[in-house]
């Protein structure tokens, strides 16, 4: 079991990562999975307003946590990477809830006022 986990981590560790510490208030972070586009308007730090391309996904104020490796409990806080699963927290009926997406296909970060050609894509 450990050898499988080590192989998985080694395969995914060479991929480009996005550091959530780079976002500023007003930035937009778009995370694309097979089924959903998640668009985060950064409020402060990891706090964001979330809009989704699907009505059955969480929306509103969320806190971006980081990225998980596949279906394991292994987690990398403060970082996102393609192939990983975005995790964020939010309030559902005034109770904290955690949401983890399917695998990330693309991450697009833009600073407030940037042109489309200037976007960082991971």
Give structural attributes.
122 residues; globular; two-stranded antiparallel ribbon; mainly beta; 6-stranded antiparallel beta barrel; 1 helix
Quaternary state of the chains? single chain
Q: What can be said about the biggest beta sheet?
A: 6 strands, antiparallel, barrel
Distance between the termini: 30 Å
Overall pLDDT = 84
Enumerate the strands of the largest sheet in spatial order, edge to edge or round the barrel.
2-3-4-5-8-9
Low-confidence stretches: none
Number of helices: 1
Count of structural domains: 1
Radius of gyration: 14 Å
The coarse overall form would be: globular
Structural class: mainly beta
Strand content: over 45%
Order of helices and strands: HEEEEEEEEEE
Question: Summarize this, please?
Answer:
The protein is mainly beta and 122 residues long. Helices cover 10% and strands 52% of the residues.
SSE layout:
Layout: H1 2-13, E1 17-19, E2 28-33, E3 37-44, E4 47-52, E5 60-68, E6 75-77, E7 79-81, E8 85-92, E9 95-110, E10 120-121
Antiparallel strand pairs: 1-7, 2-3, 2-9, 3-4, 4-5, 5-6, 5-8, 8-9, 9-10
Overall description:
The protein is mainly β. The protein has one domain (about 1-115). It contains 1 helix and 10 strands; from the N terminus they run αββββββββββ. The protein has one helix at about 1-15, and strands at about 15-20, 30-35, 35-45, 45-50, 60-70, 75, 80, 85-90, 95-110, 120. The model has no long low-confidence stretch (mean pLDDT about 85).
């Amino acid at each position: 079991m450990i050898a499988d986990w080590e192989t998985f981590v080694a395969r995914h560790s060479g991929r480009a990562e996005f550091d959530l510490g780079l976002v500023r208030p007003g930035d937009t972070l778009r995370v694309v999975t097979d089924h959903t586009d998640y668009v985060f308007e950064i409020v402060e730090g990891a706090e964001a307003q979330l809009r989704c391309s699907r009505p059955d996904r969480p929306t509103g104020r969320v806190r971006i946590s980081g990225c998980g490796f596949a279906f394991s409990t292994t987690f990398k806080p403060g970082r996102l990477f393609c192939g990983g699963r975005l995790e964020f927290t939010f309030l559902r009926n005034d109770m904290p809830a955690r949401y983890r997406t399917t695998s990330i296909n693309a991450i697009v970060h833009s600073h407030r006022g940037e042109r489309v050609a200037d976007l960082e894509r991971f």
